[in-house]
């Protein structure tokens, strides 16, 4: 059963994702710029190739496999099933759908684990062709990678133990211990909102959640969509307050790979018009627990 608030967010996301209506992302740097949904329009022509070699799109086609960085620690988006070993979630299904669009077969894919901290270095090292991993489009990151159009819209929120005195970000003050993950926008965002709080950074979301459960912090902060996944893992924890940032997710590709960027944006549009995007959305986000 989905709560009214969550279903409202789902509806908003379903309406705004991929339609070019997303707002400019909020980051702690306060950077402003073009709407998050228009990176393709502002990039070089899609025929451009990086100097000194085949484009990543050419490489993907000749190797016949798409290598995608996904989360292994994030329920609902990319979580490694501890029993079967399968990696599952919205981002994983999106990645498979992209493999089907680009290579004609969703099985022509290899998934590699990324964390918020390792995802851009792994892309730069060419260990992966793209990142599909709850990654917010920000102006800062646009300097390092090419982003697709927005494919999901989240907002930063707080997870607390039921009964916590923290009811919203206004209650995060001096002395409050906030748990977050290295390399996530959440760290700078919470420091901007609550400069006096203590922020403890972990390598991945399952470690941060374990620390919250062990009482090492008062609250865990990241995107509400990720926090709802944690609520589903342990109902003693609850998401509180309104989201206090915009976190529009984009698929990231290596800087200069504009042919791949165009192919991904094209695929996203096809997935939306075929109804495949909605199917994937309902499968994962419809699972969100009631508040
Ligand atoms: N969407 C935010 C980010 O890109 C937080 C989630 C994450 O750590 O991936 O940093």
Automatic annotation (TrEMBL):
Cited SUPFAM superfamilies: Periplasmic binding protein-like II
Region of interest (Disordered), residue spans: 26-54
Chain ranges of the Ionotropic glutamate receptor C-terminal domain: 65-287
Keyword match Transport: yes
Every Solute-binding protein family 3/N-terminal domain range: 65-288
Top-rank taxon, per record: Bacteria
Secretion signal, residue range per the UniProt entry: 1-22
Matching InterPro entries: Bact_solute-bind_prot3 (IPR051455), Iontro_rcpt_C (IPR001320), SBP_3_CS (IPR018313), Solute-binding_3/MltF_N (IPR001638)
Keyword terms, alphabetized: Signal, Transport
Family: Belongs to the bacterial solute-binding protein 3 family.
Full protein name: Glutamine transport system substrate-binding protein
């Amino acid at each position: 059963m989905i709560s009214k608030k969550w279903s409202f967010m789902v509806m908003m996301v379903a309406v705004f994702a991929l339609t070019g209506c997303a707002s400019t992302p909020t980051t702690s740097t306060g950077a402003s710029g073009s709407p998050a949904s228009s990176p393709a329009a502002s990039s070089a022509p899609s025929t451009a190739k990086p100097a000194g070699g085949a484009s990543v799109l050419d490489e993907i086609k000749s190797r016949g496999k798409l290598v995608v960085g996904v989360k292994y620690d994030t329920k609902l988006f990319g979580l490694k099933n501890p029993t079967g070993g399968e990696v599952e979630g919205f981002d994983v299904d999106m990645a498979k759908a992209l493999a089907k669009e680009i290579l004609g077969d969703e099985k022509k894919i290899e998934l590699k684990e990324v964390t918020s901290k390792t995802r851009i270095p792994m892309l730069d090292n060419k260990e992966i062709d793209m990142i599909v991993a709850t990654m917010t489009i920000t102006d800062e990151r646009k300097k390092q990678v090419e982003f697709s159009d927005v494919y999901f819209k989240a907002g930063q929120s707080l997870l607390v133990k039921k009964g916590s005195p923290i009811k919203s970000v206004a209650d995060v003050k001096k002395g409050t211990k906030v748990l977050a993950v290295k390399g996530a926008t959440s760290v700078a965002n919470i420091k901007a909102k609550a400069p006096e709080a203590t922020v403890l950074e972990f390598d991945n979301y399952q470690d941060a959640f374990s620390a919250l459960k062990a009482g090492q912090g008062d609250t865990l902060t990241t995107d509400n969509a990720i926090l709802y996944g944690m609520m589903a893992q342990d109902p003693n924890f609850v998401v509180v307050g309104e989201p206090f940032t915009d976190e529009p997710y984009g698929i990231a590709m290596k800087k200069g790979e504009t042919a791949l960027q165009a192919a991904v944006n094209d695929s996203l549009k096809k997935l939306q018009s075929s109804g495949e995007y909605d199917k994937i959305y309902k499968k994962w986000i419809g699972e969100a627990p009631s508040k």
